[in-house]
Amino acid sequence: MKQLYKYMINRFIGPFFMTFFITVFVLLMQFLWKYLDEFVGKGLDGEVIAELMLYAISSLIPLALPLSMLLASIMTFGDLGENNELLAMKAAGISLTRIMRPLIFLSVFVSVFAFYFANDVMPVTNRKFAALLLSIRYQKPELIVKEGVFSNEVDGYSIKVGRKSKKSDKLYNIMIYDHTKNEGNVSVTVADSGTMKMSEDKKYMVLTLFAGQAYTDVESNPRRRNNKEYPFRNDKFDKEVLITPIKGMDFKRKDESTVGNFYKALSLKQLSSSADSMAKELDKRRTDFAVKLNYLSPLTREVVSYARTDSAAKSKLKMDEYVNVDSMLSNMNQNVKMDIINQALRNARSNKRSLQQAKDDLELRTKWLNKFWVEWHRKFTLSLACLIFFFIGAPLGAIIRKGGLGMPLVISIVLFIFYYIISMTGEKMSREGVGHIWEGMWFSSLLFLPAGIFLTYKAANDSVILNMDAYAEFFRKLNPFKKKKKRNEEEQPKQNENPFTGE
């Protein structure tokens, strides 16, 4: 049995690491497409890009492990079934659960490793990744301008480009506002085309313009304030070169403390502590708002303040008791009535704004609190997914009996996409506060775990649940036309048969 266990582990390790690296590579490509605009034109060193990629890979490992476990288990058992090795093992009296035993322990180890990585390693790398990404975002772009949009990245200038050439560095329909003197839009330059280049030391931006005009407002005589004429100067040019210094092009790392209380950079203990503190603060705000809600300006308060009654009558009125507004207003003149109504409208609008602001604030804080608990549950669900996907992939491979990267890859992708959609749906519901957080986060696991147990049971009993020939035979039996044809053939006498003697 020890030799069998070693054999199973050796057969599983190869596909597992191969699919793991392929999965990480695919997820990394998705990451690059997402953050590609953050890196282009920043003048970053290769070491910074490599460091950022390393942090990104570490955040993708917990997501890549379940998919790798699913694909590797289907490939391993599918290949064993295709080569009749599973049949030989079962013929020797070894059950499927006994064959799966070493890989079960291995999948448990991978799940524990995934949990340790998500709880102890990922918070550190996520904090470093967030700090480094923040540093890159604060890095001024090098010659980055977008078509049809004003760019203010160059100090003192607002630049708009109508079109950028795809074959060269030529820019067309250029408009530049000069704000270096902080006098507003008093100087504008328009050019038909031009180029932008950085100096070798990256301290100056060189802008070469062709076929343009420069409009500059001329300062009028301050003594003649009543003069409504605003003269300007118009300079035409065939070629003009603007050289302006660029500040802040040197890459400066942000301290990790600037990331703040980032929920993806916290361990389980830190998430629980932060979530408890935020929950207490949220309850306090709700209580304070509820108390404040009882003292919002009511209409009766304004009626009492404007009522023209004697002091004795006023002393008998209390702010919280019911006041017959109609009877009190009927005894007042028209101006007092209008003052009361206008003041009541102002109070109603003010109360409405206060209610809306408080509601938005509480909803925002609740969603932020939910993100902490979502991250807390995710550390468990992704780790448990490694074990669940093994119990789905291993029996599936034993049933379909197809190895390689063909059929197993298709089945793995379909199952993982289905799992991912359910997980993301539940996670979004948890963040939005729809139902309990644990329901949304654990729904996918509670759905796939019974499926894995069912498939393992069917595979252990040599079920034909995924045998296409069995299903085809079943539907052929249900075909009424074939049944009728078969019955007619049975009832119809043979050509040479004697109807009297049956011979």
Give structural attributes:
extended, 6-stranded antiparallel sheet, alpha+beta, 62% helix
Fraction of residues in helix: 55-70%
Biggest sheet: strands side by side, in what order?
A: 1-2-3-4-5-6
The SS-based structural class is: alpha+beta
How would you spell out the order of helices and strands? HHHHEEEEEEHHHHHHHHH
How many separate helices?
13
Give the termini separation: 63 Å
Weakly predicted, low-confidence segments: 295-320
Describe the model:
By secondary structure, the protein is an alpha+beta fold. The chain contains 13 helices and 6 strands. It has helices at residues 2-39, 46-82, 85-91, 96-138, 268-293, 299-306, 311-316, 325-330, 334-400, 407-432, 437-460, 468-478, 480-491, and strands spanning 150-151, 157-164, 170-178, 187-198, 204-217, 232-245. The protein has a 6-stranded antiparallel sheet with strand order 1-2-3-4-5-6, with no helix packed on it. A hairpin with an 8-residue loop joins strand 3 and strand 4 (187-198). Helix 10 packs antiparallel against helix 11. The model is unreliable at 295-320 (pLDDT under 50).
